[in-house]
Amino acid sequence: MSSDADRKSPLADPLLILIALLLVLATAATLYFIPAGASKSYAIEPGARPRPVITNQIVVVTVEEVVAAPASGHGHAAPAAGASAHGAEPKPAEPTETKPAAPAAAAVTLAAPVVTPTTDGKVRGRVVLKGTPLPERIIGAVKSDSNCGKVATGTAMTRNFVVGPDGGLRYVLVRVTQAPGGSGKSAAPALLDQAGCMYEPYISAIQTGQTLQIRNSDPFMHNVNCTPKQAGNKGFNVGQATAGKVDEKVFETPELAVRFACNVHPWMTAFVHVIDHPFFVVTDATGAFELPAGLPPGTYDLEVNHPRAGSATQAIEVAAGRGAEVVFELGVPVK
Fold it and tell me: 125, CA 20 to 30 Å: which among 17, 79, 182, 313?
C-alpha cells in the first residue's frame, strides 16, 4: 500500500497548471474584446477579407464594401461623391456645356452704353465683347458617337463665348425689365431643335404662355430633360425616338435660363429664357438685336444678359416716332 506522502496533488502537475491558466486567459480575452450583442458589421476595402474573431458567442458578420476613390493629397482614400457603402450607381459625367456660374467682374474696362435716338420708333443695337476669352473646345463625342457621327456637320464646339469678327457677342438676352402696360402676346410657336446631336439654338427666349415646340430632327433616339427652378414651371423628361417627333410645352412663370438636356448624349444642353412680356430678343451672330415693334411710349430700363459675360442696363425713352439705338459692352470675366 502506498502512503499519503506518495500521493501527488493535482496542483503539483505542471501540465494541469498550464491548461488551467490558458482557460482563464481565453475567458478573460473573450469578455474584454467582444461586447454584448449578437450581430456586428464590418466595412472593408474592395477585395479585402474580414478577419476572424474568436468568441464564445454567435456573431453574424455583414461585409460592406467601401467604394474606392482617388487618394487625396494626404494619401487617404475617400468615398466617391454620390456613392454609398453599398456601391450605389455613380453619377453620370457632366455635359461639356453646363449652366455657368454667376459671372465675375470683367477683366477689362468697359465703356458706358452709347445711346442714339432713332426716328422710326424702334429699339435696336449691338452687344460687343471686350477682352479675349479662352478658346472654345471641340466636342469630340459628336463625331465619335456611332449615330451622331453619321449626321454631324462641321465641328461641334462649346458655346461659352460665340463672338463675331468685330467682337459682336451672340446669345445675349436683351429685354425691357419691366412689363409695359397693355403688352401683347406672342402667338407664333417657338422652336427648339435637335439636329446633328446639338440643340439649336443654344440660347433662346420665349414668352409666358407661348408654345415651345421641341423637335428631334435626327433619325435616332434623343430625350428631352427639362429642369426649371420656378415652382410655376413644370419639369419633364420625354423620349423622342424618331426623326420629326415634336413635343409642345408651355411655361407660365417668368424664369431665366431654363435648362434642357439630352441624357442619351450628355453634351447636348440648351437654355431658354421665359419672359412675361413680348419685348425681348436674343442677339444674332453679329451681336445685333432689335426688339419687336409695339413698345408703348415711356421710359424703360433695357437690360442685356449673357450667362458668362454678365449684364448691363441702360435707361431708354420711347415716344411717338422715336426709339433708341444702344451699343453695350460686356467683358470677359476675371479668371
Answer: 182
